[in-house]
User: Which sequence fits this backbone?
């Protein structure tokens, strides 16, 4: 808005409409110019007409004056002739003079309008002259003298009268001339005024042109401003795009880190340190897979909106990517961060309707308060660690970071890196623990167990690195490797060791492997490359498989079974020990967990017997795991377990030692085996379904 | 800006129009046919002897005249001058400001009869009241200048109407544009 306002300002400069008095002055100026122009032109026009009339009048007056003068001269000539008559002259000259005088009268009379005073006067004078009996001049001497005297008097009087008219005419002439000159001067003044006006207008025009030029400059400037501001808008937009997540409109990781850094810097001055919250949605992937990405996006938008509602105005909610959100709590006073975490966990837990279906997800939150972290990235990393801790602790909860977590995580990260390298370097070895058939006392199967032979730390047990492998996804590579090695090795022993043609290998399979989408291919590859028939391979699974993504897992298990590979339920008795799960997974082998044996110590093997009977009832081969003492072995035998596995018989052996063990196995087992055992099923006599 | 410009154009046009009207009033257009009608056959032609006037001479010619009849002067009475061939004309008389008819003799015929030499340039005309006017011989020979001896009705012209003889110009003759050239009561024509 301010930008638009700024853009409007130059326009206000260009046109004087911004202020009222500007407009009034402009209007006044225009009115003055128009008024002055009209006035001057009025004067010029009036004077032009006046001057024309004056010129005519002057020329007429001049003509009259000239002719009156001639008339007067003629009269004087007559007087002169009459005077000469006194001295005895002839009257012929007088007659001529009278004729010429009459002619002049006619001419002068014609110069005046018939109804004018001068015309009347001239007519009277002419009539007086005509009335005189000029023939008296031809009379006798005495009479002639009187007549001459009378004629002279008449002519003189006429001359005086004409002189009078002449003088009047002269006066009029001079007056008219003066008027004419005045009119001319007025016209000149008016014209001078007109010229001045033109100059003023020209000056005004020039000023206007200048203003126009200036307004052009102003326009160019405003265009520049517009362009700059547009560019700035574009930059803002780009900046927004660069710093915001397109889907939710939330700040992205870059902006989040910047905000977090700002809060950390601001925290130096205050005692209330900021906290970073990392929020990861539990089960989001499931929504994405089952309802589609559109629904997943919709869910993310809803969650983003809910998260925004859980924080204070000056806190920042950001989407770091995928289903990962983060929050900056600027001032973590009175456990504000924990309150925010609790609030948002509740908010996310509320059902969301997306893709026409109601889904429920949860959030795991890691909280890291500013402590020894050097920068925002470290603080965020610590929040990440805490979030993983929350996930590990059962999800839909929050964990506050403490330093132990970081150490654990660092170890774990280091381990992960080393493990990745180890898989590449082939440091994952397969060890084999024999499984002995209690009916024949012979080794009928071996369980393949992954071992990491660390170059410096030696052998690392699977309990340490398998969870790391599962978390990092390395389990796929490891699982593939173990399958290949185990199949190849067992197929080798089947041919090389006498009496071991039907040796079976059992390989542990995790959920991660089963849902990776590549397990079937790896399985086929291992069987094909080794030549081991599918019946020679049993995959060990656990009940926990059923907890996650059961549909996918069940489908994958069905595919495996269709190939003729059998399934074994591992660690039975350690978890839910659900009979239903045994039925659902359609396993062929039941492996009783070590804890059963430990618990059964006081019960004299009655539990083992019960479980074994259950297994047999369900038609399964029952294997007792973790048999470490002779007493346990006795219990197992009494319970009529089909096979047994444990340190009492053999620890897991490296591949190189298995061949030898198999060759000489019989006596040790037999020695530890009491007689009179019930006949059970063996690994090999159970046909695949 | 546009309106101001057209306004100025209007103003300028007005001024020009007024100026045109102003100058136009001083030159009234007058169109009049000035037909000359022969009313008397020329009996006296150049080269012939001009008879001496009977009684009072109407006017005399002096100066560079080859034909004379009274010493070095060529004097005409009315009958003699009218025998040069008389015409009747109608023209605008500037003094009375009216169309008038006159009868008279072309001045160039009079000059021809007087046998004016080639080096003569003008006629110096003197009236009864000693008013004088000069006419260029070239203008006279170009024609249209008449020495009127009678009014349109054939009567003599009295002195108080400019008689007995006066110089008149046909309409449109440049030499007669100035009314002062219209000399009346001609007494003497001196060829110079």
Assistant:
């Amino acid at each position: 808005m301010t930008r638009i306002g700024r853009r409007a300002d130059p326009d206000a400069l260009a046109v004087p409409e911004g202020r009222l008095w500007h407009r009034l002055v402009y209007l006044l100026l225009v009115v003055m110019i128009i008024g002055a122009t009209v006035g001057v032109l009025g004067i010029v026009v009036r004077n032009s007409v006046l001057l024309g009339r004056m010129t005519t009048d002057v020329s007429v007056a001049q003509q009259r004056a000239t002719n009156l003068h001639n008339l007067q001269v003629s009269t004087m000539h007559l007087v002169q002739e009459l005077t000469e008559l006194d001295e005895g002259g002839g009257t012929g000259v007088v007659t001529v003079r009278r004729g010429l005088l009459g002619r002049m009268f006619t001419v002068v009379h014609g110069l005046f309008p018939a109804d004018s005073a001068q015309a009347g006067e001239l007519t009277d004078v002419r009539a007086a002259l005509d009335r005189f009996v000029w023939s008296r001049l031809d009379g006798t001497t005495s009479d002639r003298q009187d007549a001459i005297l009378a004629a002279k008097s008449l002519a003189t009087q006429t001359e005086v009268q004409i002189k009078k008219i002449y003088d009047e005419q002269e006066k009029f002439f001079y007056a008219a001339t003066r008027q004419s000159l005045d009119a001319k001067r007025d016209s000149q003044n008016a014209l001078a005024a007109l010229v001045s006006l033109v100059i003023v207008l020209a000056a005004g025009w020039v000023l206007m042109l200048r203003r126009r030029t200036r307004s052009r400059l102003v326009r160019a400037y405003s265009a520049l401003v517009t362009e700059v501001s547009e560019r700035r808008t574009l930059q803002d937009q780009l900046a927004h795009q660069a710093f915001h997540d397109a889907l939710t409109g939330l700040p992205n990781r870059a902006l989040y880190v910047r905000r977090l850094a700002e809060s950390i810097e601001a925290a130096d001055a205050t005692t209330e340190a900021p906290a970073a919250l990392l929020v990861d949605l539990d089960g989001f992937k499931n929504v994405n897979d089952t309802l589609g990405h559109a629904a997943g996006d919709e869910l993310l938008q809803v969650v983003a909106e809910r998260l925004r509602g859980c924080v204070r105005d000056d806190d920042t909610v950001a989407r770091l990517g995928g289903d990962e959100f983060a929050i900056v709590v600027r001032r973590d006073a009175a456990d504000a961060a924990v309150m925010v975490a609790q609030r948002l966990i509740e908010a996310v837990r509320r059902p969301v309707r997306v893709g026409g279906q109601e889904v429920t997800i949860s959030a795991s939150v890691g909280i890291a308060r500013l402590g020894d972290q050097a920068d925002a990235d470290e603080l965020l990393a610590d929040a990440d660690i805490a979030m993983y801790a929350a996930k590990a602790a059962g999800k839909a909860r929050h964990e506050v970071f403490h330093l132990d977590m970081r150490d654990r995580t660092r170890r774990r990260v280091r381990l992960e890196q080393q493990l990745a390298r180890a898989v590449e370097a082939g440091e994952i070895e397969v060890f084999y623990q024999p499984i002995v058939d209690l009916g024949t006392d012979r080794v009928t199967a071996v369980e393949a167990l992954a071992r990491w032979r660390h170059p410096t730390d030696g052998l690392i047990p699977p309990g340490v690195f398998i969870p790391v492998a599962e978390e990092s996804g390395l389990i796929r590579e490891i699982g593939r490797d173990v399958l290949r090695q185990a199949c190849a090795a067992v197929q080798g022993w089947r041919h090389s060791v006498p009496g071991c043609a039907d040796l079976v290998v059992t390989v542990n399979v995790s959920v991660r492997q089963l849902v990776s989408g590549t397990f079937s291919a790896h399985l086929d590859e291992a069987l094909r490359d080794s030549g081991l028939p599918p019946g020679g391979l049993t995959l060990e699974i656990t009940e926990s498989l059923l907890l996650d993504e059961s549909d996918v897992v069940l489908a994958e298990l069905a595919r495996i079974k269709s190939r003729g590979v059998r399934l074994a339920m591992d660690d039975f008795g350690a978890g839910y020990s659900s009979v239903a799960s045994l039925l659902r997974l359609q396993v062929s082998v039941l492996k009783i967990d070590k804890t059963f044996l430990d618990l059964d110590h006081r019960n004299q093997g009655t539990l083992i017997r019960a479980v074994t009977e259950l297994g047999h009832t369900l038609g399964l081969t029952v294997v007792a795991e973790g048999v470490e003492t002779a007493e346990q072995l006795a219990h197992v035998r009494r319970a009529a377990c089909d096979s047994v596995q444990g340190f009492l018989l053999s620890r897991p052996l490296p591949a190189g030692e298995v061949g030898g063990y198999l060759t000489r196995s019989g006596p040790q087992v037999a020695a530890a085996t009491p007689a009179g055992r019930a006949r059970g099923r063996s690994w090999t006599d159970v046909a695949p379904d | 800006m546009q309106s101001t410009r057209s306004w100025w154009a209007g103003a300028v046009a007005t001024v020009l129009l007024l100026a045109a009207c102003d100058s136009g009033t001083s030159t009234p257009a007058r169109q009049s046919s000035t037909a000359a009608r022969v009313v008397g056959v020329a009996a006296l032609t150049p080269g012939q002897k001009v008879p001496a006037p009977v009684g009072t001479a109407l006017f005399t010619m002096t100066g560079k005249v080859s034909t004379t009849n009274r010493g070095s002067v060529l004097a005409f009475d009315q009958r003699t001058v009218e025998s040069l061939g008389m015409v009747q004309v109608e023209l605008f008389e500037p003094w009375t400001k009216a169309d008038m008819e006159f009868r008279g003799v072309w001045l160039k015929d009079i000059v021809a009869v007087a046998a004016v030499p080639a080096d003569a340039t003008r006629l110096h005309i003197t009236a009864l009241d000693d008013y004088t006017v000069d006419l260029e011989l070239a203008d006279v020979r170009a024609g249209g200048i008449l020495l009127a001896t009678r009014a349109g009705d054939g009567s003599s012209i009295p002195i108080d109407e400019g008689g007995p003889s006066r110089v008149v110009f046909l309409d449109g003759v440049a030499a007669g544009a100035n009314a002062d050239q219209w000399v009346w009561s001609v007494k003497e024509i001196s060829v110079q």
